[in-house]
Amino acid sequence: MKKLISLVLCSLLLPACTSIKVKSVDKNLQIDQICINENKSVKFYEFIDTIRRRIEYHHIRTLVFSDENKPVECEYTLLYSALRSWDLGLYLSHAELNLFKGNDLIAEATYHLNGKGGLSLTKWASISSKMNPVVDELLNKK
């Protein structure tokens, strides 16, 4: 009976793992500005604010633009997507960041809550507590 209970508990808690995959930018690149292409399908604005603040924390300027209005001075461009899930409240369950130099992908990161967080209470943690380490690693600024 104890083995059955242990198996059930493990199967409920195991999906609560967070998966973070990052291909960091080359440490030798001197990035002074990143233009962020606003993704209008991401309806929670604190996401882009969190990403901007964290990039600027590393002394890199940011500029947000929409698809049709990309400024010519944008050498580096960040595209992003983010999804929320619901479990007694909304929380960030998946996010992707893709950094381009011109048309070349130079860094990428994915944050994913396996099993949408399962029973873990950390799934309701702030967007900044989830995404700041991801942005740091993306920019190779650990």
Automatic annotation (TrEMBL):
NCBIfam families tied to this protein: Sbal_3080_fam (NF040519)
UniProt-recorded name of the protein: Lipoprotein
